[in-house]
Amino acid sequence: MDFTFTEDQLLFQESVREFLLNEVTAESIRKLWDTESGRSDQLWTQLAELGLTAMTVPEEFGGLGMNELDFVLIAQECGYVALPAPLVHQALVAVPTLINMSGDNADALKAQWLPAIAEGSAKVMVGLEVNMLVEDAHIADLLIMQHGQQLHALTPAQFTLQFNESVDPSRKLYSVEWTASAETLIADGDAAQQLIDGAMDRGALGVAAESLGLSQRMVDMAVTYTADRQQFGKPIGSFQAVKHLMANIAFKLEYAKTPVYRAAYTIAHKQQSSSVNVSHAKLAATEVGQIAARNTMQAHGAMGYTWEVDLQIFMKKAWAYNNAWGLVAFHEQRIADFVLSDSAVIGAGNTFV
Amino acid sequence: MDFTFTEDQLLFQESVREFLLNEVTAESIRKLWDTESGRSDQLWTQLAELGLTAMTVPEEFGGLGMNELDFVLIAQECGYVALPAPLVHQALVAVPTLINMSGDNADALKAQWLPAIAEGSAKVMVGLEVNMLVEDAHIADLLIMQHGQQLHALTPAQFTLQFNESVDPSRKLYSVEWTASAETLIADGDAAQQLIDGAMDRGALGVAAESLGLSQRMVDMAVTYTADRQQFGKPIGSFQAVKHLMANIAFKLEYAKTPVYRAAYTIAHKQQSSSVNVSHAKLAATEVGQIAARNTMQAHGAMGYTWEVDLQIFMKKAWAYNNAWGLVAFHEQRIADFVLSDSAVIGAGNTFV
Amino acid sequence: MDLNYTTEQTAFRAEAREWLAANVPPSPLPSFDTEAGFQAHREWEAKLYEGRWGMITWPEAMGGRGADLIQWLIFEEEYYAAGAPLRVNQNGIFLLGPTMMEYGTEEQKQRFLNGMATGKDIWCQAWSEPNAGSDMAAIRAKAELSEDGKHYIVNGQKTWSTRAVWADWAFGMFRTDPDSQRHKGLSFILVPLDLEGITVRPIPQLDGLPGFAEIFFDNVKVPVDCLLGESGQGWSVAMATAGFERGLMLRSPARFQQTAKRLVELYKENQASADLDPAVKKAVVKAYMDAEAYTLSTYQTACRLVQGGKIGAESSTNKIFWSELDRDMHATAMSILGARAELLPHAPQAGGVANWLDGWLFSQSGPIYAGTNEIQRNIIAERMLGMPR
Amino acid sequence: MDLNYTTEQTAFRAEAREWLAANVPPSPLPSFDTEAGFQAHREWEAKLYEGRWGMITWPEAMGGRGADLIQWLIFEEEYYAAGAPLRVNQNGIFLLGPTMMEYGTEEQKQRFLNGMATGKDIWCQAWSEPNAGSDMAAIRAKAELSEDGKHYIVNGQKTWSTRAVWADWAFGMFRTDPDSQRHKGLSFILVPLDLEGITVRPIPQLDGLPGFAEIFFDNVKVPVDCLLGESGQGWSVAMATAGFERGLMLRSPARFQQTAKRLVELYKENQASADLDPAVKKAVVKAYMDAEAYTLSTYQTACRLVQGGKIGAESSTNKIFWSELDRDMHATAMSILGARAELLPHAPQAGGVANWLDGWLFSQSGPIYAGTNEIQRNIIAERMLGMPR
Predict the structure, then answer these.
(1) Which of A329, C241, C280, C343 could lock C347 by a disulfide, CB 3.0 to 4.6 Å apart?
(2) Residue A254 located in a structural domain
(3) CB contact under 8 A, D1 and A243
(4) What are the pLDDT digits (tens) for A294-348?
(5) Looking at residues A30-55, what average pLDDT do you find?
């Protein structure tokens, strides 16, 4: 029993954090808002150079062969800077979907795409029905699309996109028009369903981990702001009401972290509980995200309501993640189905099985 | 349009408050805890002398002929002192049930019981199935009991009682064993159902009004306590966190009062909306009761957790009222049924109809 | 207690309803946080004035109807139910207007009230400063009397001035006694925004539109007849205004009742999916109840005031209640909309999101502006409950 | 990260489970807030000691098993799952014991630890005073050295001493330097409760039982060898104890997991009526999640500590989390029980209420004792987030 990350994992997290804090500033994010694609090839190249695009790609395909647990701390850091690039999506959703593929075309697909993903020369996105829209479809070299109980792989010539503007200017959401055909089909029936379920869980894990980072960032910003901002002759951060707004985020955030790490672990180790664990992680982390948005907005006063203050970058993403990769109702129901089933073994001593 | 009480109503409320504050002290309540019946004949006589038992009895039966609206402020004061006597129950539930009775025995029943109620020489209680147990059945001279869609009237010889101890030592709850017979039957079918529904609404109105008083009392006690109690060199009431605990009761309490008054008005004026109005009143007032209990307990610190501190007298009653005269779910469903019906006319301009 | 409208009140409602049905623009005006929208709203103010529906609580002689608070509530109900435009000149009509009637000279009333009423002059507030937000007494912007006594020389910076970008006039507090501290030495001054030395810098809001602005004053010469009330008495004058602001006039229960009604409709349209989260139905029922409670309490207060009572702590309790109700209702709508909630209305897949997102963004400001809810809770504890400072 | 138990851990669990299955009383002991119940619990402590399950984290030489925190968590899980009695001597074993091992003299360890372990000496705390609750540094009870230096003469009053009514010994802080202020000049002293001049006045709780007491000291002569740690260093010694108290050892996740499990069962038994209030199912799911989260975080902290890490702000975050979780779970149970919720278990119509009402009453104290949750929030804001004081 060891519920800690290794020194290596923590050191790598730290170096990625340092890189991201330097490269992905609020200023650089706002600059991307004014570009057409909203995405930066240069940033992607940098991420690839750091090895981040290769992390979850198996070694035989030129990757680092790491798993969801290795990546979860990185996803948290991506949230902390509100990374405007589909790294988490690709590493946690697209790559495992490709890896877990079997059947006729599978080997060819893997050989074609995984090395390119690892080296940063190709981007692959996954569109599931649960999300209605596909994030970053406009920069995808390959789209893996759900069609009921099938998965299809599409190259840009095989789809057209319509942009859907989100309240978060960093989110690039598209509706995809395309036609399912035997030529595009890559998985069907149970095999496809397993891939879809796995993609769903990993997507939810990703936004859960990012939500931890987003929440931490909002708290850090508000703590800094309220230490500087003076009213009634003292910093507003010295008022108990403001302190408690922050403490109420901080203590809940602590209790959202371990469910996220546990979910990453049980996914990585293919444990049966992973779906329920992911739902717990998603609910806990995105709930903290909502509370963090509300309380840090309040602590910022009128400043928080402006376009100029960077809080909005993180707040709007936290709002959007509340409804992405499965609504609250969906995840609650998954847990209820487990907890209320006659076969559920719960209570003391049954957490790790 | 005049949503205020008359000078007379307010003056009478004040004189009743003064009487109750003098006569119904925490000390006197604790003394009653040590008696077998938990009730005081002397107190009942005093209430009768003040005219309170006669208030809702029609003038032709020796009463004051006042209605639910006249009585609601009195019920609020009864809550403020946690009156250990079934005045609200009798005036708001039993008396109107008798008044609204029709049929063969109705006139005889009214003539026998209403004058006695008015002068304080008889007590009549109503037992509805929604409450499972009957409060103060042990001191009732007449019990009106629901039996499905029937009402029966029972004298003490016709029932036996079993005491059910409540967390609130002032509540005297009984299960009643009795046998329905043609002899005891006083209303049947639709006529009985109407009486049952009316009793239910009035009972809920009563505990709603009492809950306002209970909540106000808890706030008053906690404000006093936290002004006296010193920690870190100043009164704990000067800490913002403690202030906000109290403010969160106070502002919600303000918005629970008008729904209670509106419900009393629409019942008194037999308006169709009264059932929905009562449910709103009950939900709002008992919710404030729960918040008041929690926050004043917290403000009292460890003192609040003791038997010695009088807060428990009011807190435990507020807890009990949350589940009396219809659970939260029941009242919410009544409002939902109205609001979601296709015929509901809601929105601006439709509050008073 | 009599919860029936009088015949006169019912007739008044009918008259308002009829006029609104005939005059409210068939489709919503563009946001008044855009230049075109601002102009359209200014024209709507003029139309309201023509029908004598612009400032119904003002005396008849000033173009109003001398309406009492009950009539005002009735009119607001009809106004919101008709989906009429927001009031671009609310700062003028509801805040400055009543203050001017109380504190203004006869000459000032003649000069300003008509322009305010007709929509010719749109007014904005110039109260907050970068370091004087919740703590208004910390104001530093100066207005020094010129040597000839004809002008105030105004210097300093104001911020969070709502609708200041295209407004004509501002009113606010300035420190006329440079050596004064806190609440003393402040004066209430009216400033035409086209004077030399004034720079208005728009502040974009969360939605990107410039809903408020900073105003910079660089040796601006404001004529002395723009002083409202006595010099050095600005705090008392402003408190009258603040009382109005936090009080009834700007937080019409009708607005929240209509939001609750739209929420019920949204829920019914999406009931199957919404009910997957059992909290939603409960929240919808609560929205209805709370909007009702806010209405009931407002009527009670209005009746008390009509009978000569004074406004008490209601201005703090109602600030918390409506702002948290508004945020909660919009949060529930966002839950119902699910994956669509984040989309702007023009997004191809946004079907049915209406303006809930806009409302959600706007509702974020409720617990902050006009005195944060933390400050209001302090006020309730200290002034209403008498807790120690 | 490896979330599997080792073979040794699994074997340890099996051993604990087996012993508990054979030894846990078949029906619950009476409350230890009654005299008979106190005695029954004292005997249970002795039985635990015999089986070497009383203080498993203590060294083997002292009758423990030298268990690490993971083993402790495993044991707690088995203990709560077996429905074993509450620990009447928890103040001794979990608070004073570890403190004494760190600060006690060899002679003190010999003298006190065995009596504590066997249940012969039941210990209570004597920390709070009427005016020193949340503000512990305001302690006034005095312990003055006698002229011959052999005794402390103790005077003053302590309060909120849990289980003090029938306890044998108390430990607490007293002011040994009469001129000292706040945190200085305090000493940590052990006091036998049968000394002359000591009066223990029971304080009945909300449920009417004397779960705590006031202790009055009137010229009580306490031998100087009852000083723990150095004279005047009481604050440091006590803070070590407070750290333990707020920390892991007394808030076993197992307790909350079992409550969550019982809540799930209660819900399933009453599902038809419970589902009429849609909030209930949501609350039940949340209870399960939060109890899991508390367990996960406790394991993480335990693993960190086992690897040599230090405890940080966890003691404040976990205080808030478990106490509000416990109150919420019991509130949900009260909702499910409906009209029965207020009934004592022996009421004829109480069928199925079990001990939920007792738990509800007890859960009220959680946000208050061991440092109110308001204080904990201050600590999180100031020490964990670095907000200004």
Answers:
(1) C343
(2) yes
(3) no
(4) 999 999 999 999 999 999 999 999 999 999 999 999 999 999 999 999 999 999 9
(5) 98
What percent of chain B is predicted at pLDDT more than 70?
Answer: 100
Residue in chain B lying closest to C253 (CA): B348
Do the Cβ atoms of C297 and B349 come within 8 Å?
Answer: no
Domain boundaries, position A218: 197-350
* Residue A232, domain CATH: 1.20.140.10
* B125 within a domain of the structure (yes/no): no
- Backbone φ and ψ of B297, nearest 5°: -55, -50
Cα angle B149, B153, B158 (rounded to 5 degrees) comes to 120
Contact B218, B246 (CB under 8 A): no
Grade residue D244 by pLDDT with cuts at 50, 70 and 90.
low
C289 vs B235, B248, B284: nearest CB: B284
Per annotation, catalytic residue among D60, D245, D269, D292: D245
- Cα–Cα dist B108/C382, whole Å: 57
Nearest by CB to B3, from C1, C6, C9: name it.
Answer: C1
Distances (CA, A) of B296 to A264, B218, B234: 42, 6, 19
First to last CA, chain A: 11
* In the predicted structure, residue C242 carries a pLDDT above the cut 70: no
Domains of chain D, start order: 7-88 (no CATH), 123-234 (2.40.110.10), 251-384 (1.20.140.10)
Answer for the pair B346, C288: CB distance below 8 angstroms, yes or no: yes
CA D199 to CA A46: how far, in whole Å? 74
Per-residue pLDDT at D246: 45
Mark yes or no for CB contact D297/A284 under 8 Å: no
CA distance linking residue B97 with residue B57, whole number of Å: 11
pLDDT of residue D249: 60
Is B238 part of a structural domain of the chain?
Answer: yes
The pair of three-digit structure tokens given for residue D389, joined into one six-digit string: 């004081």
Q: Cβ-count burial of A155 within 10 angstroms (0-12 exposed, 13-18 middle, 19+ buried)?
A: exposed
How much is the mean pLDDT over chain A? 97
Residue A137 lies in a domain: no
Confidence at residue C244, expressed as pLDDT on a 0 to 100 scale: 55
Residue D27: Cβ-neighbour burial (10 angstroms; 0-12, 13-18, 19+): exposed
pLDDT of residue C243: 63
Average pLDDT on C328-356 reads 96
> Where is average pLDDT lowest: B81-90, C132-141, C361-370?
C132-141
* Mean pLDDT, chain C, integer: 93
CA atoms within 13 A on the CB side of B112: 10
Work out the minimum CA distance from D267 to partner chain B, whole angstroms. 15
Report helix, strand or coil for C375. helix
Residue A221 C-alpha, separation from nearest chain D C-alpha, in angstroms: 11
Closest to C196 in 3D by CA, of C167, C168, C174, C218 = C218
What residues in C contact D285, CB-CB < 8 Å?
none
Reported as a pLDDT band with limits 50, 70 and 90, residue A289 is very high
The alpha carbon of residue B226 is apart from the nearest alpha carbon of chain A, in Å, by 17
pLDDT at D315: 78
Nearest-by-CA chain D residue for A225: D387
**Considering its fold, how many domains does chain B have in total?**
1
Query: What's the gap between Cα D158 and its chain centre?
Result: 18
Helices (H), C66-154: 69-81, 90, 97-103, 106-118
* Secondary structure (DSSP) of A55-108: TTS-GGGTS----HHHHHHHHHHHHHTT-SSTHHHIIIIIHHHHHT--STTHHH
| Chain position carrying tokens 């020796």 | B62
d(CA C180, CA C232): 9
B319 at interface of D, judged by CB pairs closer than 8 A: yes
